[in-house]
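Supplementary Methods, section 5.1.

A reviewer requested that the exact input to the structure prediction be made available. We therefore reproduce it here, unchanged from the version used in the analyses.
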Amino acid sequence: MGRRVLRSSWLLSWLLWIGLVITSVPTAAVSARAGSEFVVAESPVLGPCAHCDSYVLPLFEPADVAHARALIASGGTAPQPVVVAEIEAGADGSNRDVLAPGEPVWSWHVTAFVRFTDSTVEIHDGWPAFVESDVAGWIANTQAAPGEPGVLGFWNYTVVAELPEPGANGPWAAVAVLLARASRRRRAAARRA
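The structure derived from this sequence is encoded token-by-token as follows.
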């Protein structure tokens, strides 16, 4: 009986270790495709939020990622806090309201990051839920020409957090947790026997 428990514990520990190694090394394909994702929400320097919503901003260029991280570190006081981005209608599975319970997905998404700036023209100012209330209208009012994407540049919003790398806690992390729980249960059962 003891050898069987010992062998099962060794196998579970080995599988747990393999699962953890797999989850800790992101694949190049995921990293190259995904870039870094950031949460854009109302600036913390302005006090309590008025709309209390957010959207997800994907960034790919190292200089843009560095500036976004500087905004987070400064609490929103770094220069050029306003995000200017192009958007299109349709959910992409990534853009969502991270601040809302359940993180509901928006029916629009960022297609291109344009720049960080100190201000934008008034027509680009708004908030994510306002865009959501009439995505087609927002795009029609802010696009440079028909058929072009819409543009947003919310005055009171800035980068407030970085999301974990997509896939970093994928299914192997769940497998690792389950294996660890099973191993603990078996060891406890072996001690009782």
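The first strand starts at residue 36 and ends at 42. These observations are discussed further in the main text.
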